[in-house]
Design brief:
Distance between the termini: 43 Å
Number of strands: 24
Helix content: 25-40%
CATH superfamily of one domain: DNA methylase specificity domains
Length: 409
């Protein structure tokens, strides 16, 4: 599907800037298949997951079938409808280390500085318009090379990249600090939630428990709702699986039903403070989160929730369920050939753990929540800096903001 040209007409071009099609300023090549040569180590295969994860998710090939060199720019050419990977880019940082996979495009330009080119085409609106939201998006060579670009002289490109580099350095340091804080939080969870380290002043033996000993496990009923039951502005919102994240509730636009439908299905309402548990296994983990809203919500049938109890703090139980040891146990208790899920019975009766007194739980929660607050503050700062950089990036590469020629490099 050809995208609609939404560019403003007769827009003034900044002094010295040019408008060209991508194909006029780059050499382009497509990657090749590596399926037969995947190995445990070797050359890094630059595929969709590698690019979309900024180089974190990796596969290796024993052969460098499609070599990449330092300063080559690569871009994802194929993705699912409404995917986040289509037109995502990555800048190659060293020679003879990577090999380009099929459906990933490579770019090299003598007229546009590599880092500038990467920012210019990364998730460019021109490419995103090929995604119709229904079908797989496959960017063809002619479509890619037809992308219109506006860019300054090489000297100004270098100044722009230098400015953006300052923001990249700040975000890089902040990102590393966030990872350190996350690892500290994991260490605190491992030590205090398992009793390896006790909070000062507590020595009482922990009791082994299962969920059925002290709380109610309630089954969601939202999947009994038919499409005809969905109301435009119904009173009750139906929480689906995608809203249950790993330790967080993900706000999404939810379907609603009327009061009449709610009564017909015998609906059960969630309460603020309930612990929502997604019984469907998501990759190698089971998602769980605290629900802290006071409105009228029900859930889909694959979501259970734990009602508050006088014997435990829901935040404590949330952290316990996020612990790797607990997650491993959930996976053992899960079954299914297609959709893998943990049964309500297994969750309620076979998930066992040692529970300290309520007073010691409160002490542990105080420690973990302090770590959460420190991490949340860093994440807020990261989001703010990312938004500021995005604003600056969009205005610098479009010429709305110019960088002085007198800027020190």
């Amino acid at each position: 599907m050809k995208p609609k040209n939404k560019q403003k007409k007769n827009k003034k071009i900044s002094d010295g800037w040019e408008i060209k099609k991508l194909g006029e300023v780059v050499d382009f090549w497509n990657g090749k298949g590596h399926e037969k040569d995947i190995s445990e180590r070797g050359f890094i295969v630059v595929n969709s997951k590698f690019v979309s994860s900024n180089g974190i998710v990796r596969k290796f090939s024993k052969k460098q079938i499609s070599p990449l060199q330092k300063n080559d720019v690569v871009m994802v050419m194929s993705d699912v409808p409404k995917g986040k990977a289509i037109a995502k880019t990555f800048l190659i940082d060293r020679d003879n280390f990577y090999t380009l996979n099929q459906r990933i495009g490579g770019f090299k330009s003598k007229k546009i500085q590599s880092k500038f080119l990467q920012n210019l085409i990364n998730r460019n609106n021109y490419f995103l318009q090929f995604d119709d939201g229904v079908n797989q998006t496959n960017l063809r060579k002619d479509d890619i090379l037809g992308c219109p670009l506006k860019f300054p002289p090489f000297s100004e490109q270098k100044r722009i990249i230098a400015v953006l580099g300052v923001w990249d350095e700040v975000l890089g340091k902040l990102g590393r600090k966030i990872e350190v804080k996350k690892n500290i939080k994991k260490g605190l969870m491992q030590n205090f939630l398992t009793g390896e380290i006790r909070v000062d002043g507590f020595s009482e033996k922990w009791e082994e428990k299962k969920l059925s000993d002290f709380t109610d496990l309630i089954q969601g009923d939202g999947d009994w709702i038919l499409s005809k039951d969905i109301a435009e502005n119904g009173k009750y919102e139906v929480i689906q699986l995608g809203s249950i994240g790993f330790g967080e509730y993900i706000n999404k636009k939810l379907k609603t039903i009327s009061s009449e439908t709610f009564l017909n299905i015998g609906g059960k309402l969630i309460q603020s403070g309930d612990l929502l548990f997604n019984r469907m296994v998501n990759g190698d983990k089971v998602n769980v989160c605290l629900f802290e809203k006071d409105d009228d919500y029900i859930t889909s049938v694959d979501i259970c929730w734990l009602r508050k109890s006088k014997e435990f703090l829901n935040y404590y139980l949330l952290q316990l369920m996020l612990l790797q040891k607990s997650q491993n146990r959930f996976l053992v208790l899960s079954s299914g050939s297609g959709r893998v899920r943990i049964s309500k019975k297994n969750l309620f009766e076979k998930f066992k753990f040692k529970l300290p007194s309520l007073e010691e739980q409160e002490a542990i929660v105080t420690i973990l929540m302090a770590a959460d607050e420190e991490l949340a503050e860093l994440l807020r700062k990261q989001k703010l800096y990312e938004e500021q950089k995005k604003f600056l990036l969009n205005n610098l590469i479009s010429g709305e903001i110019r960088v002085s020629e007198n800027m020190k490099m």
